[in-house]
Design a protein that fits this description.
The chain has no helices and 11 strands. By secondary structure, it is mostly beta strands. The protein has a single domain, classed as Jelly Rolls. The strands form 3 sheets. It has a 6-stranded antiparallel beta sheet, with no helix packed on it. The protein has a 3-stranded antiparallel beta sheet with strand order 7-6-9, with no helix packed on it. Strands 4-11 form a two-stranded antiparallel sheet. β6 and β7 form a beta hairpin.
Length: about 120
């Protein structure tokens, strides 16, 4: 049985600049076709705009507030919002609040640096 605790999983920085803690993926569990991670975006920060040619993502906001852009549409996001990000669509999320923005990221297939195409400079 694979059970991972968020407080015991090491963090790493993704290609888009997010700090994530990968809870379940092929790297650390029996899961083979998707991944689940928590991302944390500091106050005043944002991810780099990017897209994934193969991976579809779901972001689920668990703490804080932000602004999400997918292609040419931008919306405010808050705790409880689930965001669908189909493969190939450019996206970016900003922390617009006064506390760290936390979100769960579900990726299918699992997140890979090689499937992340950055579309803006840092």
């Amino acid at each position: 049985m694979d059970i991972k605790n968020l407080n015991e999983v090491p963090s790493f920085i993704t290609a888009d600049g997010s700090e994530i803690r990968e809870l379940l993926a092929h790297r650390n569990s029996a899961i083979r076709n998707q991944s689940l991670a928590e991302a944390r975006i500091p106050v005043g920060s944002a991810t780099l705009e990017h897209y994934h040619p193969r991976c579809e993502e779901i972001y689920f906001i668990t703490h804080g507030t932000g602004k999400m852009r997918i292609e040419n549409e931008t919306r405010d996001v808050k705790i409880g919002d689930a965001i669908a990000i189909p493969p190939g669509l450019k996206h970016k999320i900003w922390n617009t609040g006064n506390e760290v923005l936390h979100l769960l990221c579900c990726c299918a297939p699992s997140y890979e640096h090689s499937d992340t195409i950055i579309t803006e400079t840092a």
